[in-house]
């Protein structure tokens, strides 16, 4: 479990040339984890983000909403002890905002 994650730190860790999966793997390598755990988290992150075929596109082609999906999806699946969230969730669509709020409630219950 990581002590503190900010969405801004997640965004900064991705290269604009990298693709979704490559960027996530690169980010997750900064944490004490195994390849097996990375693969498991990758599946959960991809599913939660609902970015579909865009996971094969360079991150520089993502809209603000897609970046929000990517950042939140990665941050919440790293299982931080503290997660700082600002107005970033306002850029996603309603169904994504709802999934985020549900995930935040799960996060709160674990604490």
Describe this protein's structure.
Helix 3 (35-49) crosses helix 4 (64-77). This protein is 56% helix and 5% strand. The radius of gyration is 13 Å and the shape is globular. The chain is mainly alpha-helical and 111 residues long. The protein has 5 helices and 2 strands; from the N terminus they run βααααβα. Strands 1-2 form a two-stranded parallel ribbon. It has a single domain (4-110), classed as 3-Layer(aba) Sandwich (Rossmann fold).
State the gist of this model.
This protein is mainly α and 111 residues long. The chain has helices at residues 7-13, 20-28, 35-49, 64-77, 94-110, and strands at 4-6, 82-84. The protein has a two-stranded parallel sheet.
CATH topology: Rossmann fold
- Counted by DSSP, the helix tally is 5
What is the rounded Rg? 13 Å
Structural class: mainly alpha
Write down the CATH class: Alpha Beta
Content of β-strand: 5-15%
The CATH H-level homologous superfamily? P-loop containing nucleotide triphosphate hydrolases
The stretches of 5 or more residues where confidence is low (pLDDT under 50) are: none
Q: What would the average pLDDT be, to the nearest integer?
A: 77
Q: Terminal Cα separation, in Å? A: 12 Å
Helix content: 55-70%
Estimate the global geometry from the Cα principal axes.
globular
SSE order: EHHHHEH
Strand order in space, largest sheet: 1-2
Q: Please report the total strand number as a whole number.
A: 2
């Amino acid at each position: 479990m990581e002590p503190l994650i900010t969405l801004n730190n997640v965004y900064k860790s991705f290269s604009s040339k990298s693709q979704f999966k490559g960027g996530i793997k690169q980010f997750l390598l900064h944490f004490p984890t195994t390849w097996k755990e990375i693969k498991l988290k990758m599946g959960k992150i991809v599913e939660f983000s609902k970015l579909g075929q865009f996971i094969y596109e360079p991150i520089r082609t993502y809209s603000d909403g897609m970046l929000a999906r990517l950042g939140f999806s990665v941050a919440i699946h790293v299982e931080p002890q503290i997660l700082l969230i600002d107005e970033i969730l306002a850029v996603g669509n309603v169904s994504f905002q709802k999934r985020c709020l549900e995930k935040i409630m799960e996060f709160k219950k674990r604490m």
